[in-house]
Amino acid sequence: MSLADFVRGLPKAELHMHIEGSLEPELMFALAARNRIDLPFKSVEAVRAAYAFSNLQDFLDIYYQGAQVLQTEADFQDLAMAYFRRLAADGGVHAEMFFDPQTHTDRGLPFSVAINGLLAGMAQAERELGVTSKLILCYLRHLDEDAAFATLKAAEPWLDRIAGVGLDSSEVGHPPSKFARVFEASRAAGLKLVAHAGEEGPPAYVWEALDLLKVDRIDHGNRSLEDARLTERLVAEGMTLTVCPLSNLKLCVVDDLAAHPLKRMLDLGLKATVNSDDPAYFGGYLLDNYLRTAEAVGLTRAELVTLAKNSFAGSFLDDADKAARIAQIDAYAAAN
Ligand code: HPA
Ligand code: ZN
Q1: Nearest CA to ligand 1 atom 4
Q2: Measured in angstroms, how far is the CA atom of residue 3 from the centroid of ligand 2?
Q3: Contact 101, 111 (CB under 8 A)
């Protein structure tokens, strides 16, 4: 069996994917037409040509602009279903999906629109594709903590359908410490906690995410490798890192995929996982991230199996579901 077929057939979970970042240019144009919104681009090709980024902020500027075509619950449902179809085609069976409510409420949409549409898409994906999912509400870190508290308050009627909260957007200059109180309140509300840290920000931000936010997973975490004590701590705690290789390439976190630290992370004993981050913007969905990285850094089939197992072990599924998925991977690996 080819490596591509082997990895496609491996059950996988995706733990780091921003649903607004799965908006393909074709759907962007379709939603702009449906909602009578003018786009600053003439064609799908012109949109794709604009996706040349030299850092995180370059990307975020265009990502927030693209999200403006999302206006109705149906738009969010269609967006989610388009992603789930790609995930299912890649052999993904479970996703823990980020959304950025403030990106939508700040342009006048009621809080209910994005979340109701996404929940409808998640239910449809489970019915039609057998793909399960959970929702993670991200606070935008370039805004202040009061705005995050207002978002947590707005989310109250949906708390039983939100698995956790995260922290995304512009990292440098917006350390985790800025959000310690709202993460404490989110934990008290029964939510799991994750945060982007160590993508562009220094190892100190990863320490803060651990010590001040008390996160259950670190999103990205690449720069942790600059600090040996931090690396030891992450290994000792079995902390999951949601690594996004093609994102790292597109945002110039690495110069070259061959220089990506994923293999080194596994060698060090870190619980790394592979994820697509913003697949419509970064040139690949889940399977592409596995395969292109495997080719660039030379991952063995055993390492690819470990990555898939890590994706379930680090998920927010319950222990019985995790064990069942890991047993399924073991059976698949033994048979192939
Ligand atoms: N990093 C930080 N914030 C984000 C990203 C990312 O890769 N994608 C969407 N928001
Ligand atoms: Zn991200």
Answers
A1: 169
A2: 27
A3: yes
Pocket test for ligand 1, best of 17, 19, 23, 59 (most atoms within 8 A of CB): 59
Structure tokens at 277: 């981050």
What residue's CA is closest to ligand 1, atom 3? 169
CA–CA separation, 44 and 274 (whole Å)? 28
Neighbouring C-alpha atoms within 13 Å toward the C-beta of 277: 28
What pLDDT, in 10s, does the model give residues 93-135?
Answer: 999 999 999 999 999 999 999 999 999 999 999 999 999 999 9
Question: How many whole angstroms from 206 Cα to the centroid of ligand 2?
Answer: 15
The H-or-E segment that residue 30 falls in is helix 25-34
Whole-structure pTM over 0.70, yes or no? yes
Query: Which domains are assigned to the chain?
Result: 3-335 (3.20.20.140)
Q: What is the pLDDT of residues 125-155, one digit of tens each?
A: 999 999 999 999 999 999 999 999 999 999 9
Q: Which residues line ligand 1 (CB under 6 A)?
A: 18, 21, 56, 63, 168-169, 196, 199, 247, 277-278
Q: How far is the CA of 60 from the centre of ligand 1 (A)?
A: 7
- Dist. CA 193–CA 219, nearest whole Å: 11
199 is catalytic: yes
Ligand found nearest the CA of 246: 1
Separation in Å, CA 146 to CA 112, 182, 212, 280: 20, 8, 17, 31
Residues lining ligand 2 (ion), CB within 5 A? 277
Q: How far is the CA of 165 from the centre of ligand 2 (A)?
A: 13
Helix, strand, or coil (residue 100): coil
Cβ burial of 206 (10 Å; 0-12, 13-18, 19+) is: buried
Q: Is 195 helix (H, G, I), strand (E, B) or coil?
A: strand
Phi, psi dihedral angles at 99 (to 5 degrees) = -140, 155
Give me the catalytic one of 199, 232, 237, 295.
199
Q: What is the pLDDT of residues 201-257, one digit of tens each?
A: 999 999 999 999 999 999 999 999 999 999 999 999 999 999 999 999 999 999 999
